[in-house]
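Subgroup meeting minutes
Present: P.N., E.W., G.H.
Scribe: E.W.

1. P.N. recapped why we're keeping a running log of single-chain structure predictions: easier to compare across weeks, and new members can see raw inputs and outputs side by side.
2. G.H. added today's entry (174 aa).
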Amino acid sequence: RDVYKRQAQDGEILWEPRFAQCWHQCFSQDGKTLAAIVATGFGSFSVAVNGVAWPVDLPVISDLTVGADGSTVAALGSVFNQDFCVLVNGKAWAERYDMAWKPVVSGANVALKVRRGKKHGYVLNGKEFPKWFDQAWEPVFSPDGQSLLLRVVEGEQMVRLIVPVVDFGKGGGM
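Output recorded in log:
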């Protein structure tokens, strides 16, 4: 009995049967890039892009995101929903977080909301925004991808920050 299923679309084989499981398949907008969360072994997961698994294996992979043109693929990895890391194009960013939310992709840029202890923060392309907040919402890229909207609660105030992508790690917008 063959427990592996071939990935197929419209009668064409997309991926050969290499993975025990294949979850949350996502296409890029042009349909040329197909990414999925895959089981590379028992209790070991990774992301595969066009049938090729990344060299990163973790007990949990979630929140897969594919950029519009397919050149940037991001996901979250964790050790049983603790010690979250961000995975982008096959590499794990260095920092770890108590919690992380689904990455947002704009071109080659990847941003997301994270939490350490009781403080919420933001990360863009592996760089943390220098200020942490009492509460935060997911970041939003401007239509041209040059700025990020950060919505936060600081003390008793709701604050909206527009931060140029080029100034992100420098504390721009504060």
